[in-house]
Structure formats: structure tokens, C-alpha cells
UniProtKB/TrEMBL annotation:
Organism the protein comes from: Candidatus Thiodictyon syntrophicum
GO CC terms of this entry: cytoplasm
Keywords assigned: Transferase, Tricarboxylic acid cycle
Pathway the protein acts in: Carbohydrate metabolism; tricarboxylic acid cycle; isocitrate from oxaloacetate: step 1/2
Name of the molecule in the record: Citrate synthase
Active-site residues, Swiss-Prot/TrEMBL: 310, 367
Length: 433
């Protein structure tokens, strides 16, 4: 909970003074509580894109965009390079602390137990065209999961919630892998209960009925860290969507399915695909890095330097730094000198010394290097954002639950400033000119 500050915000409107309380969070962030602004003043605020508006109080993730700080439940993400698994971090985000060994083992056992899909659900993949976007399938099938678990629509207690969370976190891998296999006309590979979270996913993605794919430790560690670095990011577009949908009382599956749709957008989670498209365009010689940056700066072009810029970070995105370092280390071992990494480095070098980007505080974000890394691991481009969704799911679940546990949870319903036609009457068609 935030604390009430001794000072207040004073708004002068039409010769009247209105006072509003100021609240302060645990990291000294301050917010003006305008919950009764309209009742007091008859005015609402207008903040397009919510760049200045806090929608809730949350204890899950802390970002300081100016200092490039990102912490999950107080732990700086840089410390996750020390080897926790994605399962550890998923449990941390959802439960507020790191799991004991017994809790970790129980959660891992649940993730193994719940990996399979109901056979009639497995057949539903055949109804999609081969070219169906995997994010469309992912959102549809996460929603479809709720049809097979009606007992998890109303989560009465923490234990039921934990089982629903484990089911979702486990099955999203299976859904993602089956979507990929279907797009290639390959038979589904069932999860292997002997494998842990990441190796089991890669097994379902790349094994053949006659030959099991063994996930190299290098790939396992890289994908584990990629998922961790994507696991949560406070009130980003997709997480806010999950909270918005969940605020209506919609169940966990429906809320997360909505999060998948929001993440799909090229300005959000879809940017990692756009980054690779941009790098490949440059690599194929259609355009030089210098020319691309020039286009990205031009008001006349819709081109943006994908993977650059962020609503919150006005400094380096710490995740981009970590992914860049992993790429530097891994790529020479995974895919001999990927030329796209060189192009990425060149773009970064140009942009970081260009006044256009400096003045607008545009730095590489999480998507700038993730695509190159995922490609080196062998993940196909159209699955990049799906990997982002697998990583972000524990964050969505944690926020959905945090909101549901807040007694003051009200349905989210922003206001607007109407700018349309003023009053006019209906005219019968024969009388219209
Ligand atoms: C993610 O919110 C999150 O936390 C998101 C995320 C998460 O973990 O959930 O971090 C994941 O979505 C990362 C962002 C991935 N998207 C991209 O990389 C797409 C490229 N970046 C942008 O489109 C943009 O920077 C956004 C969408 C990320 C942020 O947009 P904002 O905050 O609305 O900024 P803006 O559009 O108002 O831009 C401000 C100025 C504009 O120029 P002016 O009108 O002031 O002259 O900066 C320019 C923009 O044109 N600008 C860019 C640019 N990003 C902003 N110009 C060129 N290239 C870019 N990438």
C-alpha cells in the first residue's frame, strides 16, 4: 500500500481551489489521487496513451526509466543472470518471494503434470489453416482451455488459483509448440515428463517421432534467461489489458488470451519480429544502416527504428543490455558470426550518436536483440512474439491475481472527451438529401 503524504496538490479552477491527496510508493514515486476530481470539479483529466496516469498500485515490478532499473519483487533483473530458472522467477512474480526447495519442486511437478492438452483440444489445431498466425492460435487456444477447465472459471482460493496458474504456464508451451508443428505439417510431439520446462518446450518444438531433440545447455540457458527477462514489466500495454479485462470479473484464461492479442501489436511484443525484418532488409542490401536510420528520423516516412525507444525507459533498457551481452557471447558458438548482429551493432552505434535519438531519449529496448538471439537458438521468426508471450504469462497471471485480491477492485472504465456531432434529429430515408 502507498502512504498518504502530508502535502496536497492544489488545483485552481474558475477561481476555486481544490485539494487532492498525494500518495507515495515504497520507491518514493508520488501520485496525485484524483479519484474524486470529477465529483469536486466537474472536470476529468485527458492523458492520451496514459503516459502520466497510474491505473493501480502494484507490488510486483518496479521500473525506474531514467536510471534503467528493473526489479521483480525487489530483485534486480541483473541478478537473474546468476542462474535461477524461469520456473523460479514465475513463482517469485506470482507469490511475492522466491520459492523454497519444497515449493519449487511442487510447482515443477505441477508444470510437468499439466503439460498435456486434452486430446479433443489437440485436434482443434487441425482446424486452423497452416498459415494461421501463431499468436492468433495462441490466444484462441488459451481461451479454449477455459472450456476444458470450467472448475477454474471462479478461483475461490489461493490453492485453486495456483493450480490454474500452473496449468496455464505449463500448457502455453504445448499450445505454442503444436501451433508451430501444425504450421509445418509436422505431427505433434507429446511433452516428455522427464524434461524440465525449457527443454520440454524445445523437445515439443523440434523432436521428430523417430529422433528426440536434445536441448543443448547453451540454448537452454539462453532461452531460460530470455523468458525471465520478458516475465513482467509493470503496466505495459498487454499487462494493462489483462488487468482491464480481469477487472470485469472475466476468468484468468480469458484475461490472458486478451493479453496475447495486445502483445501481438508491432509497437509492443510484435517488435521483435519487426526488428529481424529490418535487419534482414538491410542485410539483403536493399538499404544501408545509415539510410534506414535516416528514414526512421523522417516525419514523412512511417519507418521506425524497430527495437528502439520506450514509453518508460529514457535510458538503456536493462534487458537490452543483458540480451546484447548474451548475444555477444552466444552467437559465435551458436551460429558462426551472424551478420545481423553486426548490423544491429552498427544501427545502435549510429543511433546513439545521432541528435534525433539522443534528444528523444531513444535507446535499444528488449526487442532489439531478442530476435537475433531467438533466431540463433533456432526459433522461427513467426514464433518470436509467442516466446515473448510464454515469458510474459507469469507477469500477467501475477497482475490478474493481485488485482483480484484488492478489495477495492472496481471495473476499469475510463472516461473520454466527446468531440463528435452535437444534438441532431433522426431523418427518414425519403427525406434525406
Ligand atoms: C515493448 O511498455 C512496455 O513496458 C513494453 C515492453 C514490455 O516489456 O512490455 O517493454 C515491450 O513493447 C518494447 C517496445 C517495442 N516497440 C518497438 O521497438 C517499436 C519501435 N518503438 C516505438 O514505436 C516507440 O518508441 C514506442 C512505441 C516503444 C514508444 O512510443 P511512445 O512512448 O508513444 O513514443 P512516441 O511514439 O510518442 O515517440 C516520441 C518521439 C516521436 O517523435 P516526435 O513526434 O517527438 O518528433 O520519438 C519518436 C516519435 O516519432 N520515436 C521514434 C521511435 N520511437 C519513438 N522514431 C524513430 N524510431 C523509433 N523507434
Amino acid at each position: 500500500m502507498s502512504t498518504l503524504c502530508s502535502d496536497q496538490a492544489i488545483l485552481t479552477l474558475g477561481g476555486n481551489e481544490y485539494k487532492f491527496p498525494i500518495v507515495e510508493g515504497s520507491e518514493a514515486e508520488r501520485g496525485i489521487d484524483i479519484s474524486d476530481l470529477r465529483a469536486k470539479t466537474g472536470h476529468i483529466t485527458l492523458d492520451k496513451g496514459y503516459g502520466n496516469t497510474g491505473s493501480c498500485e502494484s507490488a510486483i515490478t518496479y521500473i525506474d526509466g531514467e536510471k534503467g532499473i528493473l526489479r521483480y519483487r525487489g530483485i534486480p533483473i541483473e541478478q537473474f543472470a546468476m542462474g535461477p530458472t524461469f520456473t523460479d522467477v514465475a513463482w517469485l512474480l506470482i507469490n511475492g518471494r522466491l520459492p523454497t526447495t519444497a515449493e519449487y519442486d511442487e510447482f515443477s511437478a505441477d508444470l510437468t503434470r499439466y503439460a498435456n492438452l486434452d486430446e479433443s483440444m489437440r485436434h482443434q489445431f487441425e482446424g486452423f489453416p497452416r498459415v494461421a498466425p501463431p499468436m492468433a492460435i495462441l490466444s484462441a487456444m488459451i481461451n479454449a482451455l477455459s472450456c476444458f477447465h470450467p472448475e477454474l472459471h471462479e478461483l475461490e482460493d489461493e490453492s485453486q488459483f495456483r493450480h490454474a496458474a500452473a496449468r496455464l504456464i505449463s500448457k502455453i508451451r504445448t499450445i505454442a509448440a503444436y501451433a508451430f508443428r501444425h504450421s509445418r505439417g509436422l505431427p505433434n510431439i507429446y511433452p516428455d515428463p522427464a524434461l524440465r520446462y525449457v527443454p520440454n518446450f524445445m523437445h515439443m518444438m523440434f523432436s521428430q517421432p523417430y529422433k528426440q531433440y536434445i536441448c543443448p545447455q547453451l540454448v537452454r540457458d539462453a532461452l531460460n534467461l530470455i523468458l525471465i527477462l520478458h516475465a513482467d514489466h509493470e503496466q505495459n500495454c498487454s499487462t494493462s489489458t489483462v488487468r482491464m479485462v480481469g477487472s470485469s470479473g472475466a476468468n484468468l484464461f480469458a484475461s490472458c488470451a486478451a493479453g496475447v492479442c495486445a502483445l501481438w501489436g508491432p509497437l509492443h511484443g510484435g517488435a521483435n519480429v519487426e526488428v529481424l525484418t529490418m535487419l534482414e532488409q538491410i542485410h539483403q542490401g536493399n538499404i544501408t544502416p545509415e539510410e534506414y536510420v535516416k528514414q526512421a528520423k523522417s516525419k514523412d516516412s512511417k519507418v521506425r527504428l524497430m527495437g528502439f525507444g520506450h514509453r518508460v525507459y529514457k535510458n538503456f533498457d536493462p534487458r537490452a543490455k543483458m540480451l546484447g551481452a548474451i548475444a555477444e557471447k552466444l552467437l559465435p558458438q551458436l551460429s558462426a558470426g551472424d551478420p545481423l548482429l553486426e548490423i544491429a551493432r552498427r544501427l545502435e552505434e549510429i543511433a546513439l550518436s545521432d541528435p534525433y535519438f539522443i534528444e528523444r531519449q531513444l535507446y535499444p529496448n528488449v526487442d532489439f536483440y531478442s530476435g537475433i538471439l531467438l533466431r540463433a537458438i533456432g526459433i522461427p521468426t513467426n514464433m518470436f512474439t509467442v516466446i515473448f508471450a510464454i515469458g510474459r504469462l507469469p507477469g500477467w497471471i501475477a497482475h490478474w491475481w493481485e488485482q483480484n485480491q484488492t478489495q477495492a477492485n472496481r471495473i476499469a472504465r475510463p472516461r473520454q472527451i466527446y468531440v463528435g456531432e452535437t444534438h441532431r434529429d433522426f431523418v427518414l430515408r425519403d427525406n434525406r438529401r
